[in-house]
Design brief:
Structural class: mainly alpha
InterPro entries: DNA-bd_dom_put_sf, MerR-type_HTH_dom, MerR_fam
Distance between the termini: 88 Å
Strand order of the largest sheet: 3-5-4
Radius of gyration: 25 Å
Keywords: DNA-binding
Number of strands: 5
Mean pLDDT: 74
Organism: Chitinophaga terrae (ex Kim and Jung 2007)
GO molecular function: DNA binding; DNA-binding transcription factor activity
Oligomer: single chain
Largest sheet: 3 strands, antiparallel
Order of helices and strands: HEEHHEHHEEHH
Number of domains: 2
CATH class of the largest domain: Mainly Alpha
Protein name: DNA-binding transcriptional regulator, MerR family
Length: about 170
């Protein structure tokens, strides 16, 4: 009687021989099934990005100002794409900051208004550009979120002037 091996694939006699042909694959010994463990690809890093990696795009807020917000509501995936962050980070910021309160539909999906996106810009500016901690940003917004928003707008206006002057200098 012929015994059926459920863990082998047709055409590949032994898993260890197949693993030799696949790059970046290690075979764990000691198991009759020879479980495959993939090694990390060189240069790739697992886990959360560091703030240095996020600082690659310092003009993100400037790009966001150029985007015309013509819709009344934006989904969390659209907002996350605008800020180039994960949706989980947007949800985390929603839990941490009281000023950020998007509406939710019956299904529970978050719907961000233009006002919420403005608050996200301020939060992003404090956390990623000014390098505040979560607690420091909370305290700054709690003291006077209108003052923080006004300071943010002044900084953005100055950055626009700086960009204009640098373009003018390049043309000379």
């Amino acid at each position: 009687m012929h015994q059926l091996d459920l863990f082998s694939t047709p055409g590949i006699p032994h898993l260890t021989e197949a693993a030799v042909a696949i790059p970046n694959v290690k075979v764990k010994a000691g198991s009759p099934k020879a479980a495959i463990e993939t090694s990390s690809v060189p240069g790739k890093k697992r886990g959360r990005k560091s703030l240095k990696e996020f600082a690659d795009d310092p003009d993100l807020i400037m790009e966001l100002d150029k985007i015309i917000l013509d819709k009344q509501y934006y989904s969390i995936s659209e907002v996350a794409a605008m800020f180039k962050v994960n949706t989980s980070l947007i949800r985390y910021w929603e839990n941490e900051f009281d000023i950020l309160q998007p509406k939710k539909n019956r299904k529970g999906d978050r719907l961000f208004r233009q006002e919420d996106i403005h608050y996200l810009k301020v939060i992003y500016h404090l956390l990623r550009e000014r390098k505040y901690t979560i607690e420091g940003a909370k305290q700054k917004l709690k003291e006077d979120h209108k003052l923080a928003a006004r300071n943010f707008e002044m900084v953005q206006a100055l950055l626009k002037v700086r960009g204009f002057l640098s373009e003018l200098k390049d043309q000379l």
